[in-house]
Amino acid sequence: MKTGKIITIECKCGRKLFRYFKAGKGRIIKCFIDRMADDYVGVQNAETFSKPICPQCGKDLGIIMMIRGNPALKLNQGTIKKVRV
Ligand SMILES: [Zn+2]
Predict the structure, then answer these.
(1) Tens digits of residue pLDDT in 17-44
(2) 81 lies in a domain?
(3) How many whole angstroms from 81 Cα to the centroid of ligand 1?
(4) Which residues have their alpha-adjacent CB atom under 5 A from ion ligand 1?
């Protein structure tokens, strides 16, 4: 059985970025694109190695990478609001 929950990832400026299915506990380092539920800023359409930015404050959200063959957003920890799971 898979455990986890849907959390909302936000920029430090307060802009909602996307919702994400987080499996297990712990800090979020990266977000797999196919586990995002609602994409408010177009991250799911971003190309590999591009750096999506927050539409509100213009900061880097991270970088799109391939992780074990799946595209994922490696979060910029300085920009993303900390989430406790
Ligand atoms: Zn922002």
Answers:
(1) 999 999 888 889 999 999 999 999 999 9
(2) no
(3) 9
(4) 11, 13, 15, 54, 56-57
